């Protein structure tokens, strides 16, 4: 009886916390863009978090109207100035054509808006410096969600990359005729590695082409002394998207498959001798994230695991 009461109390607290979060937004937001990426990855998160949108913008107004119909009370518009001049709008989600991101993001920052902008936020270092300068008095976050993924949180929580010596990172996908493969696709793994291991000291890059496929093989030495071997390629298949990282630290090895698998195993040595060869024992693997063991909750949904939700909530 006591256990049932405790369980009931716990469930009641959880329910109140969830319901409280649904109505806790006090700011007005606008979303710019109604494209495939935003419809698949960003709008579902806004629905789940119950984030109020005052406007949805698209150059094609009917597209804005169709998306706005799923957000009660939202205004559909093809007039960007209407949003920029509305002082009640505190922040914008920007997910348009990549070539438009810098112009619109800089315009929004000058108008005093806070920004979440999908990658790439710009096309050059000069444009990036301008955005950094404009964002000093505001907030501008690029959509680089691996930084906020479940794997990243667990790596930090359990200090799995402390005393890292080296790593091997593989990113394999299919052809990318949509745009610039470097600033729109490879930006994710490159940013993620610099986020995890710090700025690089030196880089040796070799690029090869096989028809329309591009493969970059990179050897990195980070300022922290960490060495990395990286392969980024569009010469594989989207049906078998493959993104893995193997991390070698002084005391353990860590393996992750983005977005839903993370494990580690301890090294065993004594005076430079491998104990696993001297006295073989069953391998002990610590599993922090297992796709086969994930329950069907929102937090275990792929959009949460990949980091989209955390990136937006930030």
Short description:
The chain has 12 helices and 16 strands.
Describe the secondary structure blueprint for this structure:
Blueprint: H1 2-22, E1 28-32, H2 36-49, E2 53-57, H3 61-68, E3 75-77, H4 80-84, E4 89-94, H5 98-110, E5 114-118, H6 125-134, E6 140-143, H7 150-157, E7 164-172, H8 181-184, H9 187-197, E8 200-210, E9 213-222, E10 227-233, E11 242-249, E12 252-257, E13 261-266, E14 269-270, E15 273-274, H10 275-278, E16 285-289, H11 302-306, H12 308-313
Parallel strand pairs: 1-2, 1-4, 2-3, 4-5, 5-6, 7-10
Antiparallel strand pairs: 7-11, 8-9, 9-10, 11-12, 12-13, 13-16, 14-15
Helix pairs in contact: 5-6
Largest sheet: 8 strands, mixed
The top-level CATH class of the largest domain is Alpha Beta
Distance between the termini: 41 Å
The DSSP helix count reads: 12
Report the portion of residues in β strands: 25-35%
- Class per helix and strand makeup: alpha/beta
Mean pLDDT: 90
State the strand order across the main sheet.
8-9-10-7-11-12-13-16
Shape, principal axes of CA atoms: globular
- Tally of individual domains: 2
CATH fold-level assignment of the largest domain: Dihydrodipicolinate Reductase, domain 2
Named at the architecture level, the CATH assignment of the largest domain is 2-Layer Sandwich
Whole-angstrom Rg: 23 Å
What does this protein look like?
With 314 residues, the protein is an alpha/beta fold. Helices cover 35% and strands 30% of the residues. Strand 2, helix 3 (61-68) and strand 3 form a beta-alpha-beta unit.
